[in-house]
Amino acid sequence: MIDKTKRIMVLVNKRRSLLKWCKEAECEERHFGRGFCRKHYFGIFRKIHKCKDCDKPITMQSTGFCQRCKQMGSRDVNWKGDKVGYTALHDWVRLHYGSANRCDNPTCEGISKNYQWANLSHKYKRDRDDFQMMCQKCHSRYDHDYRARLKDIIGGEKCLK
Question: Which of 53, 82, 123, 155 gives 20 to 30 Å between its CA and that of 36?
Answer without folding.
Answer: 53
